[in-house]
Amino acid sequence: MKTKRLALFFLLLASPLLAAIDTVYLEVAVSGVKAIPMGIIPFEKLGNDLPAMEEQPNQILERDFFLSGRIETNTQPSYSRLAFFKARAAYYVSGALENEREGKIKISCKLNATQSQELVLGEDYHVPPSQVRQAIHDFADKVIWQITGSKGAASSHLTYVGKVNNEKQIFISDYDGYNRIQVTKNSGINTMPAFGADPDKLYFTSFRNGPSQIFERTLSTGTTRQLFPHLAQQTFCPAPSPINSQILFTSTAGGVSDLWLGDTHTGKAEQITFKNASKTSPAWAPNGRELVYSADRGGSPQIYAMQSDGTDSRRITYLGHYNENAAWSPTGDRIVYVSQEGGAFNIYTCATDGSDVVQLTSNAGSNEHPVWSPDGMLIAFSSTRSGSAQIYVMRRDGSGVTRITSGGEYTWPAWSPFTQSNSKGDTP
Amino acid sequence: MKRITLAFTGLALLIIAGCSNKPKQELTATDTAAKPAATTSAKPTPSHDDSIKNAQIQADQVEATRLETQRSKLEEMMNKLMSAEIYFEFDKAILTDKAKELLSQAGDILQKEPKLFVEIEGNTDERGTESYNMALGGKRAQSVVQFLTSYGVAADRLKSMSNGAEKPKVQGHDEAAWAQNRRAAFNVKIKK
Q: Where residue A136 sits, what CATH number does that domain have?
């Protein structure tokens, strides 16, 4: 019995469904944000027979806080007023794990004041072993909210494309790559996924009927429907609005790709660009009124911005021959995009007027399709730096590059909006 | 009879040549025979019935022979068309001289045979972003459409679509593979 369980454990370890995380720790403060010191002590384990965990709660918290860019951690084996004071940590996190009935685990999480050891924020979770990580993420976001007054993205999700039997399928996982689920299972090419403003809606492009078409998947019910089936031409690149039921997408007719604006509720869609150049990769500004996109007016794609009715088009990028896949940060201040040089792509950000260009990746394979976390602190992207394309997250200044998938081939990440539990925390 | 779709790859052609001759003939036979059979059974007048039947059988045979001749002729033409995959230079949708030569031959066949209509699929190599490759594939397909329409083929017999980099002909990460994946491919159909 015991050996059987052990064998299962190793099988799970070997399974590609479990993410192997490796982080390149670069001690660079995220631009413009001062990281707040935070003490951590490993969680107590009460009783025996707690299921084995790949990472301990304190390790999960350490990465969540590190990636948040707003908290820097100092872990001590037990409470040490001196060590926490030295680190200037006014608060520390502690907790305990305990087996409960019906296979559940009780996780007690505490945020305490260093000096008085008094409880500042406490949260108990009663979850099956498979949800321990998500409970810890939830507490990490509650601490970030308590300490900084801004939402964290530790409870958010990513969607991306994985190659399965040489076909492309859509996956969803936690933002750290764990709890991965395969969403599409049809034979064919499914790609370009994006979460809607309602995180229960996932949009993607599929070639299941021959030419590319965009689809909406309701995750809770598992139903899938084609969007705008009345359009005879190909559709792809769905970009749902961050605030309502509108959706931008690309449609190709007569060899020219143009941008369209549709509504997923009414099923209506109208073309918003008409000039004789190929336009694609629409992405919304956080206000839901402007967008960035790429157009190849000069022969190769460059980044432009305009109003969602197609007016006021302005060019953003001038450096580089081939700039594509722009995304507007949820904080509204930066645009991330890829630029091709020497056959590989690298990730850049710039201000919304195209100034202040900062290169975030270099000499590390081809880096593509950057997208922002809902708090604007992280960027997810795919990279071939370790061989086949894998999904990575990094902080918005390019530090803290963390691989969250392994094995196979994964591309086109897209981030979920904040999940519900983030907004439940008390205001600080 | 519905439109008969023929895949453009050699393998598919072999399969079609090997397997689909009979079903196709059967389809044709039942299709043309269906209506007369219904009318004769509806009017059971014995004296006229036999002569109508015989005339009908003869007409069917003539029609079947004609269709079969036409079919094999079309198949030969399609073989020629489908092997004429049109290659492009990196990040370009402009037709090369070689491509124009092949397309002229395709144009000749299409002008001779008005029952053929063509879907043109634009493809790109794996370099470039996924979304821009979709746009580029569309431009490539359209380059072919434009050449053929200016060659005299009616626009409503031509349809363009893009596969982006999603349907590579050759797997591989080098110029040899990329060169073959930057292509337009024909998907030829017979209009009834």
A: 3.40.50.10070
Question: What CATH superfamily classification does B85-190 receive?
Answer: OmpA-like domain (3.30.1330.60)
Which residues does chain A have within 8 Å of residue B129's beta carbon, measured at their own beta carbons?
A: 281, 301, 324-325, 338, 345, 368-369
Q: How far is B182 from chain A (nearest CA, A)?
A: 16
Which residues of chain A are within 8 Å of residue B95 when distances are taken between CB atoms? none
What is this structure's pTM?
Answer: 0.83
Q: For the stretch A129-146, what's the b/e string if a residue is b when 16 or more beta carbons lie within 10 angstroms of its beta carbon?
A: eebbbbbbbbbbbbbbbb
* Gap from A256 CA to chain B (nearest CA, Å): 6
User: Domain count of chain A?
Assistant: 2
Q: Are residues A245 and A360 in the same domain?
A: yes
Which domain CATH number covers A210? Answer: 2.120.10.30
The reply to whether A77 and A193 lie within a common domain is no
**Dist CA A369 CA A381 (whole Å):** 5
Domain ranges (residues) in chain B: 4-79, 85-190
d(CA A66, CA A59): 10
The answer to whether the CB atoms of B134 and A250 lie below 8 A apart is yes
| Full domain range(s) for residue A350 | 157-424
In sequence order, the 6+-apart residues with CB closer than 8 A to the CB of A309 are A261, A272
Considering the domain architecture, whether residues A110 and A231 belong to the same structural domain is answered as no
> Mind listing the pLDDT tens digit of every residue in chain A (428 residues)?
344 443 444 433 333 344 445 555 444 444 455 799 999 999 999 987 888 889 999 999 999 999 999 999 999 999 999 999 999 999 999 999 999 988 899 999 999 999 999 999 999 999 999 999 999 999 999 999 999 999 999 999 999 999 998 899 999 999 999 999 999 998 889 999 999 999 999 999 999 999 999 999 999 999 999 999 999 899 999 999 999 999 999 999 888 899 999 999 999 999 999 977 999 999 999 999 999 999 999 889 999 999 999 999 999 999 999 999 999 999 999 999 999 998 899 999 999 999 999 999 999 999 999 999 999 999 999 999 999 999 999 999 999 999 999 999 999 999 999 985 533 333 33
Nearest to B130 among A191, A294, A296 (CB): A191
Rounded distance between C-alpha atoms, residue B107 and residue B152, angstroms: 8
Residue where the block lists tokens 């990465």: A63
